[in-house]
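Q: What does the predicted 3D structure of Raffinose/stachyose/melibiose transport system substrate-binding protein look like?
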Amino acid sequence: MKKMIKGLLVTVLATTLLAGCGNNANNAESTNEGASGGGEAKSVKLKMFIAQPRFKEHYDKYIADFVAKEKAEKNIDVSVQLEMPTADNAAQILKTRLASNDAPDIFALHAINEIPSYYKAGYLEDLSDQPFVGKLLDSVKPSVTTTDGKVVALPLETLSWGYLYNKKIFTELGLTPPTTLTEMKAVVEKLKSNNVTPFVLSYKEAWIPQLVLPLAAGAIINTKDKDFIERMNKDEGSFTEMKEMFDIFDLINANGTEKATEVGGDDGAAAFAAGKGAMWLQGPWYAETILKSNPDLDFGVAPLPINDDPNATLINLSASTSLAVSKTTKNKEVALDFMNYVLDDTASNGFFQALKFNPLASVHTYESYPWVNDATAYVKEGKSYQDPAIPQAVKDEVGKGLQAYYAGQISQDDVLKALDKAWKSYNKVNK
């Protein structure tokens, strides 16, 4: 998820445990005596790269628990260096790291957008034989499985999303989520007539405005342009076919909070939690941050209308943030231990629940959240689609383009031409 963000890397030494015989836990070299129950402890430094800085507190705690478990069960002293850059900067930083043979042992990537190209480049360790794989739900496993049948990542976030809306405001004004663009315009007018700002705008981070692209593309591909992705991959399509995404984007922008390019995701969450806008172009992955600001907020998830075809108003189903192990890691044993600990039979429940992530494994027994149930109701009615496989480079380009478009610096056609160019460049590299 640029110009406005200076994106300093946040490097956190999550936990360092030192044990016997003068071993230094920061030394990646290992002794040969690491068995539990005696002997000199083995020291391992594990590097992790996860672009979710808002969850730092939860990761720190979970990593500390893992470190204690490795020490108790295997007599391994593990220190973890955790980098948590912003989403806007993470993809480019990680690509540079991987290309320069400086790969983290464990890193986060987007399951749909990035696994195909990262796997083709040889960056991902095959995890197919790991215990956690057998715990993944059948509906989730395909998202981290390659075309040749290998599981190469562990999913953290599975998503059912569209936009967020304040249920209290909607109920008080007798509103229901609209099913067409015309109905959305009526909702906007009703909100404005009652002195309620319709939308929270938060475009400081480019990944937020780009959310309109997968929503629009998914709706249009599902209803009238089914081979769009295939044709774009052959340099035979154009984003001019997606131009109607500007209809809803313009409506949102004309009826939103001020100074959007100065407001990032966390500030947007706080504004939404405070009722400063009735809707927010955002997904439920911000639930933890929203509820931290206002634990009593009652919010829901609904599909975003793109046009006046109600059949195109659909929930986006996706698996996004996932963890992978570097093919070149020198700490494979400990890296794999951590991956399996992420879906530990007991500890995993509390971790995923604290992050407000959806249950995605057989070991997850906690109840789904109300906003998840909202989205699931649409899915059960057949009103959903699988997140379109748009290259990450294209999503990065649309984010920057829509920031500039919102600021009045470029036109709709400029944005669309830039997206066509970005996809063609992607094709040249990946063919």
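A (community wiki): The structure tokens above were generated from the sequence. The CA atoms of residues 146 and 350 lie 29 Å apart. Residues 160-318+377-430 form a domain with the D-Maltodextrin-Binding Protein; domain 2 fold (CATH 3.40.190.10).
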